[in-house]
Amino acid sequence: MREVLNAMLYVAVSGCAWRLLPKCFPPVSTVRRYFYAWRNAGLFAAINTVLVMNLREIEGREASPSAGVIDSQSVKTTESGGVSGFDAGKKVKGRKRHILTDTYGFLIFILVHTADIQDRDGAVDVLAAVRTRFPWLRHVFADGGCAGDKLRSALVGMGKWTIHIIKRSDSAKGFEVLPRRWVVERTFAWLGRCRRLAKDWEKSIASSTAWALIASIRMLTRRTARYCFA
């Protein structure tokens, strides 16, 4: 099983096709069969959650976070098919990865959908789905795309949420580090180290989500190992 997971990590990092998997790993058919089985069973999400909670305890924090940072990333799709949309703001035709991290930047939840869905609409679905997994999470940092009363009105009846909007100054020129916002941007950079996520190569939303979770699992396991062998 470890070699099967190592093969999935290799595909995620290298971005290679299934058939280009080196012979030192189990057969391609075996690895792919386990990938779809674990994806459908929600195993990748479960592993990611356990690793996040473990790392938070290592850092001296509560296992379940109370604050998070939300943002989205639009990526192009390919000729593989599947649903897609056009993000008019970023001029990208494809899908949008909507992620929620804790204040350390560890991935808590990811939702993949078409790129034409606005951030404030996607944020509602993310927060509605994550509240059962992390019931103490109530304070969320977001960018200007989630500003306005539409998001707050949609969250009525989903518990008490505190949405803190962090906007970039209109007078700022060039790059500017924004409080809390840099945390989620760094997470996107961590995930981007896996070439499989350079584009959305998958036909199904489920596979797109699974590969993002595998990239997160890779980062979390490497960080856990550094603590264990320090």
TrEMBL record:
Location of the Transposase IS4-like domain: 64-220
InterPro entries linked: IS402-like_dom, Transposase_11
The Insertion element IS402-like domain, residue ranges: 1-47
Classification via Pfam families: DDE_Tnp_1, DUF4096
Protein name, UniProt field: Transposase
Biological source species: Sphingobium xenophagum
